[in-house]
Amino acid sequence: MTEVAAIGGYSDSERAAYAEIGAVFHDTLSDLLAAPEDERAGVRVVAYKHHQAFGAAEMDKLPALALIANYGVGYDAISIPDADARGVKVTNTPNVLNDDVADLAIAMLLMQARGLVQGDAWVRSGTWAKEGPPPLARKVSGSRAGVVGLGRIGREIADRLAALKLEVHYHSRSEKETPGWTYHADPVSLADAVDFLVVALVGGPETEHYVSREVIDALGPQGVIVNISRGSTIDEGAMLDALEQGGLAGAGLDVFQGEPKVDPRFLELDNVVLQPHVGSATHGTRADMGKLQRRNVTAFLAGDALETPVN
Amino acid sequence: MTEVAAIGGYSDSERAAYAEIGAVFHDTLSDLLAAPEDERAGVRVVAYKHHQAFGAAEMDKLPALALIANYGVGYDAISIPDADARGVKVTNTPNVLNDDVADLAIAMLLMQARGLVQGDAWVRSGTWAKEGPPPLARKVSGSRAGVVGLGRIGREIADRLAALKLEVHYHSRSEKETPGWTYHADPVSLADAVDFLVVALVGGPETEHYVSREVIDALGPQGVIVNISRGSTIDEGAMLDALEQGGLAGAGLDVFQGEPKVDPRFLELDNVVLQPHVGSATHGTRADMGKLQRRNVTAFLAGDALETPVN
């Protein structure tokens, strides 16, 4: 009887590790749910590397399900209330990706402010030799940055912003112990106080459009948004309006509503840096995420404590 | 009689400030040297924003020359021995650009390692939606970085590398007081010890091809070079050979031999990030550089001490 189903696109070494514990593989959750009932009935553990919604309807087709081990820190595809109601445990892979995600936030901020995608094209197209230097860009040091959501990733970002000599502000549900960073009780006040706004919220319904039109307006024409969290955390339509009409200076975005499809309005903009959700997409970190996911699976199968439980 | 000649492309506000002290303007040093003898004879101060060689031959056509106030920290276009021999003082504009240059070094390092120019194109071309995520990239944190030349800019870069959780090594003429960074007495030893090599040397004949073929070989197939100093500091032919043949993993380059012309071999490479010498190219820093250059000019004219003398 198969106890473990591994869903999503795993690397060869990851597949080998799951094969060792007898896992079956499916590309998508739908594929598993379409499997014969006797296969589904035996599945106690789903190793999940997918963004398809995993709620009551899906869980009910897996009557023995007891653990969903998510690959990734963000588990917004999985309904925790539905899991709780069925006694299903959920784990994720926090921390091992913090540095990569924070590095990407910093890189996108610098790339946007300094015009570096354009700079590379300026050299490659021969424009430098033909027309001289590109327009002057924007200095980053000495500016004010605001972090929305001061969890583990938010802190890594704030540390790096401080090292780049930006004045650090932040907003989170409650004030936290920090090295002198300025707390704002609401996101509009934060946006109003800073030049660069970096969004490091968790995803899910509670943070949907948390960066609202009002927050975007408060950030204003000199403001730049950086988002490494989830596309859902920003009112994307309001952000696009502002980016198109001079209401914002620019954006650096790794995540989008409906990704991997991206609103074509983004593609017309030259004041945005766009990335294909690569916050944790390095060999080292993806390997570490896979190991942590598997440690949760094997701990569960052995009856040991889960390393990184969510619920 | 004109005492001040401003050479190069100044902004409107800079031109206005120089016009106030009666400066004449020329696009290039050659233009000034082609001026009538009575104009040249009166020039005591050259405010210099140009990369044309300024040595004995040029100085001898300006018999009253007493100050060359260079715009930029790098004054390798100006021959200091020739200036010394004629009692000509030289000033530059250090420090005000350190943060911008260090920020660019960090940005290019992250962009190269994480494939971010390619990432932006991956989204814009629709490849993400059509073909899925791009190949995995390289994790930066936990790696080893080496700084060649630990002057003021080198230190700013090293501080930022440490904040990104890289192990910091450096090479300079002598060991310096540092927060535990590892000193290497020669550049080959440094290159051998690190993954990322950031070049922050001064330009000029003494550092020509300081990053030699031997240094590049020591850095090796996993190594990445970042250069924000001068194109002359690296043996560019050796670096191109290595980049083309797998002898280096990549490079992030803001400066080139013979710039703004760039060796066309660079344009064929997808493992390099190329920038058109924009280390200090922000509105804020360029304004500060202009102010410092002018403070040196006005101090000289008033008989006061120079703020940032080179010789």
Automatic annotation (TrEMBL), chains A, B:
Segments forming domain D-isomer specific 2-hydroxyacid dehydrogenase NAD-binding: 106-279
Name of protein: 2-hydroxyacid dehydrogenase
Protein family: Belongs to the D-isomer specific 2-hydroxyacid dehydrogenase family.
Domain D-isomer specific 2-hydroxyacid dehydrogenase catalytic, chain residue ranges per copy: 39-311
Record's GO cellular component terms: cytosol
Single Gene Ontology MF annotation: hydroxypyruvate reductase [NAD(P)H] activity
Keywords carried by this UniProt record: NAD, NADP, Oxidoreductase
Annotated source species: Pelagovum pacificum
PANTHER family cross-referenced by the UniProt entry: 2-HYDROXYACID DEHYDROGENASE YGL185C-RELATED, 2-HYDROXYACID DEHYDROGENASE-RELATED
Keyword presence, NADP: yes
